[in-house]
Amino acid sequence: MKILLGVGGGIAAYKAAELARLLMQREDRVRVVMTRAAEKFVQPLTFAALTGHKVLTDLFAIEDAIEHIAVAQENEVLVVAPATADLLAKFAHGLADDFLSTLYLAFTGPVVIAPAMNVNMWRHPATQANLAVLRARGQTIVEPESGYLACGMTGPGRLAEPETIARAVAEQGRLKQDLEGETVLITAGPTQEPLDPVRYISNRSSGKMGYALAEAAAARGARVVLVSGPVHLAPPRGVEVAWVRTAVEMREKVMEHLPAASIVIKAAAVADFHLSKVPPQKVKKTAARVSLELDPTPDILAELGRRKGDYLLIGFAAETENVQQEARRKLETKNCDMVVGNYVGGSETGFESDLNEVVLVLSTGETIPLERATKREIAGRIFDEALLLRLKLHAAHGR
Ligand code: PMT
Q1: Quick one: which atom of ligand 1 is closest to the CA of 315?
Q2: Of 45, 110, 136, 399, which sits most exposed with the smallest number of CB within 10 A?
Q3: Domain 183-396: which CATH number of 3.40.50.10300, 3.30.565.10, 3.60.15.10, 3.40.190.10
Q4: pLDDT tens for residues 214-242?
């Protein structure tokens, strides 16, 4: 693989030399791009000697006028280590004022980002918001480790070990194209059920789990149709999005795209109840107590289970207790091939978090717990297990 290594200006820049050495041992070619600040910590000569290539630094050198475009096109993975808070902000907001930030915008392949900084800078809401943007864009973040930092403080912020970063880079090259030829239909996010023209009932779903699935499926070569409720996420690259608001609209879009689908995943948190007759005008506030009579929404997953064509059907179960038992119950009552059970009673996993911890319950009777990991990693494991499951089901039915 042809790798671009971007080095940011932090004390951890010295570790990037070890990373360059490791990548040189494993990959075809490594080209290094340094920011001006990085040059203050490590000499470009160090990287030139390790990689056998001139180090790219100056966007404005005459002979390099469009070199960032050529370099972006020639290489397969961009890894940035250490990524400073400044670089994360530039990448998140699309600023392009030096070789590395310009290259980042011109580069269309997978990006691996290994941040390193002071613990307070790492925890700052601005840094976390920038990271959320980059994660939502599908970029791999190699989390910093916790420990003693160069600034004298202790906590998260230390650059991950070069070996860990090199593994994350290698992972990009191994990206399987095992979903090529498939159409994966995914629902994500909440639904909003209006009570009048200005009020609605909804839930805490951010859409992150469903978007991670869409991104993973597209990266593995699938055509992806994402039926999305209202969320604040950028759609993953290459994914077709159908926007909906209510459970009824979600059902319509799912049924419209169903004939083409070979895998259907219902990660959306669909409201279970709605007002079937919504008042056309805003309901006036009175001193009197108000009660709502709600009707059940269409259960889309149950309908998909009843129709059960040639597609693999994967549901989710959001539970606050007995996750595995409830997931198995939903698998059976809704006739699914797999149900992904997740605990939604806390704040570290489930709704809104970038992490999840799930148990996969399969129609073969198997139960596969997956350790806590990013939603993107969990998404990858769901597809690994779904493809294996389909092989088993085909073998069992003699196909
Ligand atoms: O969006 P995030 O913030 O990343 O959070 C992710 C998540 C917690 C929302 C996700 O991982 C998840 O669990 N999604 C399913 C939430 C849910 O509605 O669970 P449920 O147990 O109420 O429903 C079971 C299944 O039936 C789900 O696949 C759901 O999509 C489906 N359903 C439910 C009601 C309905 N009317 N129609 C449906 O199709």
Answers
A1: 28
A2: 399
A3: 3.40.50.10300
A4: 999 998 899 999 999 999 998 887 899 99
